[in-house]
Structures are given as C-alpha cells and as structure tokens.
Amino acid sequence: MVDRTSGVPAFRQVAADLRERIAAGQYTPGSRLPSERELVDTYGVSRPTIRDAVNMLRAEGIVTAEHGRGAFMADAAARGWTPSSSVKIRFEPADDRVAECLGIQAGDEVTARDRVMRANGLVVQLAASRLPRDLTHGNAIEQIDTGIPVVTVTRIAHGKDRPLEMNDMVLPADRFELSYEWPAD
C-alpha cells in the first residue's frame, strides 16, 4: 500500500491513509486503531515507520496513545468518556536541554507547566512545557483559575536608602483571610 517510488516518506503515506480512513468513518472517536503488528502487515512497512505515522497523528491531535494499550481515536468524550485534566505551574532554572531548545542561558528562570489529561480517570496524556519566564510573567498562565475572587497585595521591602524588593501577591479569596491591625497613635 506504500508507494516506495513516490518520494514521500513511508510514514507520511501511512499517516495520510489512516487520515483518509478516519475521514471515511472507519475509525470512530474513542475506538482503538489496529495494533502495530496489524498495521505493519497492512502497509508492508517496519514498526518504526508505523510508530512515526502514529506519532504524527498524535501530534496533530487525531489520536492519543496509551503505553501498553495502543492508539485510540481522539475525542473520547464523544464515546461517553469524561475528560479531565490537571495543571501544575512552577518556576525553575532552565537545564542545559531546555536552555538550548529555548535559546536562553542554562540557569535562566523558566515557567514550567505540567499537565495530566485523563479520560474516565485514566491518564491518556502527559505534557510538560517550559516557557521563557519573560514571556509568561503576569500572563494568564501564572494566574489563578478564572471565576475566583482574588486580593492583590503589593509589598515593598526597603533597605537603608533604597527599595530592595517588590513582591506582588495574588491570593485567592476562597483560600485566604486577611486581617490587619493598625495602631491608633
């Protein structure tokens, strides 16, 4: 089924054919794609070629992959699955690999975003993003979920002759209670 004389890489041909089958309704949302072995037999290519094709479809959001279970059509919610996710945001120094990928210096602060996507409680994807801190500072990625009232407090720490630190705190009102006492002199 793969045309080795076309000049198009085999994995791209396999991915294109799978896309056509998906568009034709052969595979429906939430359904499992054939196993690697079955796809190897169908297309007459190697397992790495099949993996590359499936990874391409995964990168496009067409399928999800579960280690040891196979590849599944995306949009599991359409099959009665309940999607959920969790996100953790933190700041950390860039290691050598992150620095090289982002074109920054090792040790520069980055925003780390780790996401876990689930369907019916089953983990279907892990995603770890690293973003240059100067691009995320003050943006929505660093903010609390929308819909929660917040209190914003700015503190400035002063030294003998100059400010030493400015600290902006955003406190979700559902988790904090502020109480201040002022002397009446």
UniProtKB/TrEMBL annotation:
GO terms for molecular function: DNA binding; DNA-binding transcription factor activity. GO terms for biological process: negative regulation of DNA-templated transcription. InterPro entries: Bact_HTH_transcr_reg, Chorismate_lyase_/UTRA_dom_sf, Tscrpt_reg_HTH_GntR, UTRA, WH-like_DNA-bd_sf, WH_DNA-bd_sf. It comes from the Bacteria. Pfam families: GntR (PF00392), UTRA (PF07702). Keywords: DNA-binding, Transcription, Transcription regulation. Residues 8-76 form the HTH gntR-type domain. This is GntR family transcriptional regulator. It comes from Amycolatopsis cihanbeyliensis.
